[in-house]
């Protein structure tokens, strides 16, 4: 123990680590008494981190309660963040092989960048650790200070020790002409007019205003903690969902993991005309988009949702025109305009089954590209679907495969059964698009059977196309409200703390002798002018600058 | 006269008014030889006159802004020219606020020229009205960009006050702090380089200088190497050609004052199409800055900071220190709201995520962390005077990198602000 006697001469028992007596404000442990401006931080009250004999937990507490440590953490985070902006982060790309991308795009430097893990700086363990440490520092720094500060401001003694008053930064000492009571009345009135709350104790006076602004930093910190927690909460399963998908015009598409279906009713893209653009742009042949819009309908599936073959029963929930700055929003589900493709896509065809020799038409059926049925009755024949390829192609071994799930080159293999055919049926391959039929040589693949059957579309009326495809970004972020609440609280704290200042003026009359001391946490310039003007109102002419002793200039 | 023509005229009027008010503010600074009593009166009288001229200039900027808004049909903060002009307007706005609080004429003598430099810098970029792309078509463009610019403007005024503090307090008599002297002179040199850059751009623009150099660009896509020719337009003589330039296009470059150009190619790691051109611009700016600096030194026969020092000795250092801090304290919540909170709200609406670690976002965060470190050091660790002034000076460097550097050096989602 460094100090054994923690009792002030006024009789108040202070905690260890107290700088200024909690009651009368007399500086403790100063021998001999100095004349410097007092350190008024947290009114000189002891903080938890100033315990003698700290335990391990105390030591951790002390570490995080230090503003110096907080500043170090801020500066390290700041420098760490800079590294992440040297090259694009992996997260900026939807689909790349990072181990190759950085080497190919940025050479050796890029490869080193990737090997150091800087290509995902903000997801790296050390960066997350820094954020968590800043969070810990926010909590502990605040708790360590707000409680003593609250204690100090909650029970203030009006009559302060002479040393406490005369060692403030703003001090005025002089004699008064009137009787003490009349003078104090006049001064009270003058201070009240400036918005101060006055408490008097015989010949002493305490004037105070905007104490609430002292809580600003702590409210700001609470907001930041809520914000950081909300960011961490996004990793809770189910709280965060995000994916991109293509929505061809005219058919509802399921949003996985939700009961919703979304249909792109119509997609529009508009461009600026030459008259709207500067000459330079026209000369360069630039094209600038004016509008991307997807007219969308959101459905909720109410029945047959999980049955593969059956059509789900959908109920319309809402309609919305999705534009770049106007996402669709429904029960926390957000759908954003992301990209588009104006290539027409096949939705359905109504081919006829014909005998190419005789020209006899056996019948017609509707073949949907997406939810294809497995069984069709066409005249006397049945067609059973055995294989479906959305984007037909051949792999390295020459085997048929589908290159993507987009209907770029749809192909179907049916088993045709019926009169004049073996019991197990005969396979028949069908490419609905004429270009694929030629490219992949449908007739050659089918061989013999091509002489018996031909599936083809008679006119364009039997073809359903989607004019365009809209790429949308679907998201669900349950933590969002907490993010905004955190940000709002933080802003309120900042505004409270920076646009108002806590000001206190202590007065003490010993006979005709006046001692005035004033303190604020910010904006000393404003306080010294205010004190000078309040004194002028009671006929004490002072120059604002002359009562300011300098010192802590925060 | 169309509103766009009016807008351009108002811009020029504002520019000249600020040049005049700068001279007036310098005249308002009290000389050492005057008697104390006269000094205060002189400063008050001429401070008021200069401030009035500045206020009229601010009004003229507002006319520019509003008439361009009407003429273009959208708020003029959507490209680099418009944003920089707006930033200059906000710097004057922030200065007006600080002047009304502290009545410091000397602040004007430094804040107004800063706005003038930024207005001139804005004119480096193409000033045509461009149509608004769908991404920018939102009310948040108005709220986010304007408020963020106001926040940055307060940081800029804080820089001005901090620089004043340093000019006032760094001693030049023998045996005093050499390190502060050197860094202060370096800071002045950096400002001269920026002026040099603007001078070079406008000199070659006046001479209609334009040379096109072709560059072979190789990109790797799915393991295949695609090579194509990109043409790079130089508006200054190409001392540095792009990496992998085409021989024939290099031979067509005219020589400049007897020098065969280009002198060299950009190094291989500078791969971007415009990287060589940007490096060339940087070198020209440095050269022009150095020449300008040397000329000033020749005239003054002493360091610039040392030459300014006696002019500001009448200043109360505590007051400028306070102004610098106060400007950051006022700007910080504005910046947080405009550049971070509203930015997050807009990002959530437009890009579907409130935060995506886009370089511009990261640098706004860096700026915010930097100034929060400044505030913690000042409020809790009593860093004031010289220490905190240096922090405020470095702060402007970070601000400028966030605003300009990110767009020039790193591209990202914000790159549609166009350079």
UniProtKB/TrEMBL annotation, chain A:
Top-level taxon of the source organism: Bacteria
Pfam family, one: ResB
ResB-like domain: residues covered: 67-531
Record field: transmembrane: 69-87, 125-147, 218-239, 482-500
Keyword Cell membrane: no
Topology in membrane: Multi-pass membrane protein
Localisation: Membrane
InterPro entries named in the record: Cyt_c_bgen_Ccs1/CcsB/ResB, ResB-like_domain
Alphabetical keyword list: Cytochrome c-type biogenesis, Membrane, Transmembrane, Transmembrane helix
PANTHER family documented for this protein: CYTOCHROME C BIOGENESIS PROTEIN CCS1, CHLOROPLASTIC (PTHR31566:SF0)
Record's protein name: Cytochrome c biogenesis protein ResB
UniProtKB/TrEMBL annotation, chain B:
InterPro entries membership: Cyt_c_assembly, Cyt_c_biogenesis_CcsA, Cyt_c_biogenesis_CcsA/CcmC
Record keywords: Cytochrome c-type biogenesis, Membrane, Transmembrane, Transmembrane helix
Entries under NCBIfam families matching the protein: cytochr_II_ccsB
Residue intervals of the Cytochrome c assembly protein domain: 78-178, 288-414
Pfam families documented for this protein: Cytochrom_C_asm (PF01578)
Membrane topology: Multi-pass membrane protein
Main location: membrane
Keyword Cytoplasm carried by entry: no
The protein's name in its UniProt record: C-type cytochrome biogenesis protein CcsB
Protein location: Membrane
Residue stretches spanning the membrane: 12-29, 49-71, 83-102, 107-125, 145-166, 186-207, 282-300, 328-349, 361-377, 389-410
